[in-house]
Structure to design on (216 residues):
């Protein structure tokens, strides 16, 4: 059986521009000006990794977690009224079309962000399993989050097709021995992706998926 696993930021919601904007605003509150290189480094990473990268390894764990929560509170305030417009085109129809398959979300995102996006968008009921970045010890690019999603779905890694937009996420899925479909919302070409699509209206994606399911 083919199972479909979705990253969240850049796959379910085209949220990276707003994450960049909220990081810039948050960092400025702490006297830090954000460079393009800093924003480039944050894609696909968990907040504790980003905070330590931006502010230094010296921060105590409690402060790292507090800053991560504060940044995401700011992000949710900024996107609350525009979330529907941020959904990747074709996603809602795609989920409806394949709702008979085991579907999961596996993201490095903060638990509050995952819940916020899935509940506010009305998409939560499509997913049998939701795994966030704090349910595993090692975030992407390690395969843990994807292996946990497959385990909870009751499928083997080889049965899983993962939708990703970042190099670290694609690396995690490849390390988990899963098939990767890349979305070009963030990067045009992801190493390890068998197919790259612009959004879920892609005819190439439909043809590829139908071929995969016929071959099972």
């Amino acid at each position: 059986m083919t199972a479909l696993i979705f990253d969240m930021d850049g796959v379910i919601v085209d949220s990276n521009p707003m994450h960049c904007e909220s990081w810039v605003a948050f960092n400025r509150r702490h006297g830090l000006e954000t460079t393009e290189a800093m924003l480039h480094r944050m894609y696909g990473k968990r907040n504790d990794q980003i905070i330590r990268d931006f502010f230094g390894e010296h921060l105590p764990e409690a402060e790292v977690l507090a800053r991560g929560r504060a940044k995401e509170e700011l992000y949710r305030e900024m996107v609350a009224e525009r979330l529907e417009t941020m959904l990747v085109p074709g996603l809602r129809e795609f989920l409806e079309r394949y709702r008979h398959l085991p579907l999961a979300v596996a993201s490095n995102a903060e638990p509050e962000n995952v819940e916020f996006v899935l509940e506010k968008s009305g998409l939560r009921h499509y997913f049998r399993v939701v795994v966030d970045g704090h349910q595993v010890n090692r975030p992407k690019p390690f395969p843990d989050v994807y292996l946990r999603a497959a385990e909870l779905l009751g499928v083997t890694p080889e049965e899983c097709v993962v939708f990703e937009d970042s190099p670290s996420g694609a690396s995690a899925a490849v390390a988990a021995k899963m098939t990767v479909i890349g979305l070009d919302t963030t990067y045009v070409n992801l190493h390890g992706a068998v197919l790259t699509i612009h959004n879920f209206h892609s005819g190439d994606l439909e043809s590829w998926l139908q071929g995969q399911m016929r071959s099972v």
Notes: Strands lie at 3-6, 103-106, 129-131, 160-164, 179-183, 193-197. The chain is about 50% helix and 10% strand. The chain has two domains: 3-15+85-215, 16-79.
